[in-house]
Amino acid sequence: MQLAGRGITCVRGGREVFSGLDFEAASGEAVAVVGRNGSGKTSLLRLIAGLLIPAGGTIVLDGGDTDMTLPEQCHYLGHRDALKPALSVTENLSFWAEFLGGERSDAAESLATVGLDHATHLPAGFLSAGQRRRLSLARLLTVRRPIWLLDEPTNALDAAGQDMFGGLMREHLARGGMIIAATHGPLGIDSRELRIGGVA
Ligand SMILES: Nc1ncnc2c1ncn2[C@@H]1O[C@H](COP(=O)(O)OP(=O)(O)OP(=O)(O)O)[C@@H](O)[C@H]1O
């Protein structure tokens, strides 16, 4: 599986954020998207996820599932955790599993893996920032998709959480997955750097 962007131009609110951007990512590879605030890292992830339309250029996936679109083969985890505060931890995960569809793993097992098995019935609104992030990460495990698009994924994670997440990313890559992550700090795994805009 090979993902390639060619000559991508991104316009937001009538203003060009970047243009002529080329990138590649392959199965088993992590790409760390870096650049100053506002350079367009989140926008690039959203373009790949199909949540924004490029003003120019192409994004093509070779060797993926030909019955599915690129967005259907991606997990997009934004930097804000998309959780419903009144729903419990388990209900939030079930919501996402239903919404995303496709092949599923055991949700209780995913919650145990991310260290939330003691909090399954707690409303998400009561979770700490790190716990909310862990719940978002459980989505990656419950619904299997080969391409993980992660926006500042280690934000709010403590040292043990970062270790746990590093292990999950390595397992995903070992299974032939792909990771593209916007980050201001170390991702915690071997990765190739894609810099957008000037030096931060
Ligand atoms: N909905 C929007 N309408 C207009 N402009 C937007 C919109 N969303 C983002 N932008 C602008 O697009 C540019 C790129 O934003 P983006 O969030 O992709 O940057 P980023 O590199 O992820 O930044 P950061 O490091 O601060 O997270 C910014 O100048 C931002 O103000």
From TrEMBL:
Record-linked PROSITE patterns: ABC_TRANSPORTER_1, ABC_TRANSPORTER_2
PANTHER family the record matches: ABC TRANSPORTER I FAMILY MEMBER 1
Keyword Translocase: yes
Protein name: Heme ABC exporter ATP-binding protein CcmA
Record's keyword annotation contains Endoplasmic reticulum: no
Domain ABC transporter: 3-199
Domain of life: Bacteria
A GO BP annotation: cytochrome complex assembly
Signal peptide start and end residues: none
Record keywords, A-Z: ATP-binding, Cytochrome c-type biogenesis, Hydrolase, Membrane, Nucleotide-binding, Translocase, Transport
EC number(s) from the headed UniProt entry: 3.6.3.41
Pfam family, one: ABC_tran
Family designation: Belongs to the ABC transporter superfamily.
Its biological purpose: Involved in beta-(1-->2)glucan export. Transmembrane domains (TMD) form a pore in the inner membrane and the ATP-binding domain (NBD) is responsible for energy generation.
Gene: ccmA
